[in-house]
Amino acid sequence: MIIDNKTGLVLEGGGMRGVFTSGVLDYLLDKKIYFPYGVGVSAGACNGLSYWSRQKGRAKYSNIDLLEKYQYIGMKYLWTQRSILDMKLLFDTFPNEVAPYDFDAYRNNPGKFEMVLTNCRTGHPYYACESEDSALLVEKAKASSSLPYVCPIVWIDDVPYLDGGIVDSIPVLRAQQMGYEKNVVVLTRNKGYRKSEKDIRIPRFIYKNYPRLRAVLSRRCQLYNKQLELVEKLEAEGKVLVIRPEKELQVDRMCRDIKKLTELYEEGYACAAKSLK
């Protein structure tokens, strides 16, 4: 597949598995491969922002080096922030002080980058972008990364949001709707993977004010597996180029093993080089 100005970029989430995506994106930056449109979910949104601002190595630094230094994943944050992640550190201290985000470079990028959020009231995806307000851009990235059950709801303009992966984990259809029939899709699971867990009905006392959110959470596995099937179909038709881990994954969503994370980052870089040579 030829990558040109009619090709989009689609970035799956996956928590710490997203270091694979960091490697892919750093390869793209090294080779000056840019896209007119991109859409990312959760960790894919955060990594995509560093790619969109052309800050090579920033996502790796945030996901690996700063994790080792600050240990920002842990149950202890449930007591102080009602989250399994140190959200204040990740979405305030990091982008503004520790690993400054180049908001000007992001604004000057001629391409469009969207982040997927889940509207808790409607149960529908919201495709967010932001070019004017730096604080709002970070807040939308935070909402896209706010996992259900273990992170609090994020309110933006009086609307409650959570992780976009609840309803659109691999937004290739969104890219097509935006006019990009050809897409490079970065996944964080091995080829052939399917969720083996069975969907269960979410009890009414969980998210009791958001029945439509409960409904989509109750069929989350089914939705994700259907998206994987779609991607593999499009891949067979030559409509998408998929870059995914080839080695058996040793990293889960909340992995804190620096060695394993570094190896997955390096595999992402190598897989991108192999796929885009």
The coarse silhouette is globular
How does the helix and strand content classify structurally? Answer: alpha/beta
Strand content: 5-15%
Q: Could you give the distance between the termini? A: 11 Å
Strand element count: 8
Oligomer: single chain
Q: Which series of helices and strands comes N to C?
A: EHEHHHHHEEHEEHEHHEH
H/I helix tally: 11
Mean pLDDT: 96
Explain this structure to me?
The chain has 277 residues and is of the alpha/beta class. It has helices spanning 19-30, 43-52, 58-70, 77-81, 87-98, 103-108, 134-144, 172-177, 211-217, 220-236, 258-275; strands spanning 7-11, 37-41, 112-119, 125-128, 154-156, 159-163, 182-186, 240-243. The model has no long low-confidence stretch (mean pLDDT 96).
List keywords for this structure.
single chain, 277 residues, alpha/beta, eight-stranded mixed β-sheet, 11 helices, 42% helix
Helix/strand layout:
Layout: E1 7-11, H1 19-30, E2 37-41, H2 43-52, H3 58-70, H4 77-81, H5 87-98, H6 103-108, E3 112-119, E4 125-128, H7 134-144, E5 154-156, E6 159-163, H8 172-177, E7 182-186, H9 211-217, H10 220-236, E8 240-243, H11 258-275
Parallel strand pairs: 1-2, 1-7, 2-3, 7-8
Antiparallel strand pairs: 3-4, 3-6, 5-6
Helix pairs in contact: 1-2, 1-11, 3-11, 5-7
